[in-house]
Amino acid sequence: MKRIALILMLVATPLFAVQPDEVLDDPELEARARDISTGLRCLVCRNESIDESNAELARDLRILLRERLVAGDTDKEAVAFIVDRYGEYVLLKPTASGSNLLLWLAGPIMLLIAAGMGWSFLRNRAQNQDAVDADVLSDAEKERLRRILED
Predict the structure, then answer these.
(1) What is the rounded distance in angstroms from the CA atom of residue 83 to the CA atom of residue 90?
(2) Are 35 and 82 in the same domain?
(3) DSSP assignment of 81-137
(4) CATH number (domain holding residue 61)
(5) Whether residue 52 sits in one domain with residue 10
(6) What average pLDDT score do residues 102-110 get?
(7) What pLDDT does residue 12 have?
(8) Which one, of 59, 80, 58, lies nearest residue 69 by Cα?
C-alpha cells in the first residue's frame, strides 16, 4: 500500500521539460533560471510556462534565459531582454500599465455601464407603469368593452 501511495505521489508531481544538457553547473543560477522560467509563457503552447513545455521554442527560450544569467544579468534584466525580443505576450502575468491598463479596466467599466443601463431601464419601466395605471377606463369605455366581450 505504501508503494502505491509513493508511486501516486511521484506521478502527481509536476514534470519539467528542462533537458539535462540545459541545466547550469551553478545551482544558484539554475534555481534563478527555474524561478524566472515559471513566469515566462511558451509562445507555442497555451498558458504553459517554458519550464513545463517540450516545444523547441520553449527550449530555445530556456537556453537564452540561462545564457543571459551566465552573462551576469539580473533577473529583471533577463526578463526585460526576453520581453524586448518576443513582446509582452511572453509574460504569464502581464503588467497592468500602458495599453494593458485598458484591458484590465475594460471589464469593470463595462460592468458599471451595464448596471447603470439596467437601473435606468427598470426606473423608466416603473414610471411607465405608473402612467398606465393613471389611464383608467371611463364608465362609458368599460360599458363598451363589456358589450364587445359579450359578442
Answers:
(1) 6
(2) yes
(3) HHHHHH-GGGBSS--SSTHHHHHHHHHHHHHHHHHHHHHHHHHHHHHHHHHHHHSPP
(4) 1.10.8.640
(5) yes
(6) 87
(7) 43
(8) 80
Torsion-angle region of residue 98: left (phi > 0), alpha (psi -120 to 50) or beta? Answer: left
Q: In which residue are the cell numbers 358589450 written?
A: 147
What's the grid cell of residue 49? 510556462
Report which of residues 10 and 94 the model is more confident about: 94
pLDDT in tens, 68-85: 988 988 889 999 999 999
Report the pLDDT value the prediction gives residue 102, as an integer from 0 to 100. Answer: 82
- Per-residue pLDDT for 113 more than 90? yes
Q: Which amino acid is at 74?
A: T
Residue 3 grid coordinates: 508503494
Strand partners of residue 91: 40
Rounded distance between C-alpha atoms, residue 122 and residue 124, angstroms: 6
- 29 contacts 71 by C-beta, under 8 angstroms: no
